C-alpha cells in the first residue's frame, strides 16, 4: 500500500472515530421519552436501558478508531524516515 493511500485511510479512520463520538453525544442527549400514554412503557423502558448501555460502552470504540487513524498516520512518516536514512552516506564506515 502506498504512503499516500495510508494517509488517506488514516484521515478516514479519524473521521469515523469522530462520527462514533458524535453518535454517542446524540444518543446521550436523547431522553428516551416518546410522549406515550403508557401503551409502550415496556418498550420505552427497554430502549432507555439499551441506550444507557451503549452510552457506557461505545465511547471507547470512537477513541480506538481514532487511535488507529493516528497510528496509520505514523506509518508513512516512519517509512519516509527510513528511506531517507538509507540514502545517507556512512560517516564512520566499519573497519
From TrEMBL:
<protein>
    <submittedName>
        <fullName>Uncharacterized protein</fullName>
    </submittedName>
</protein>
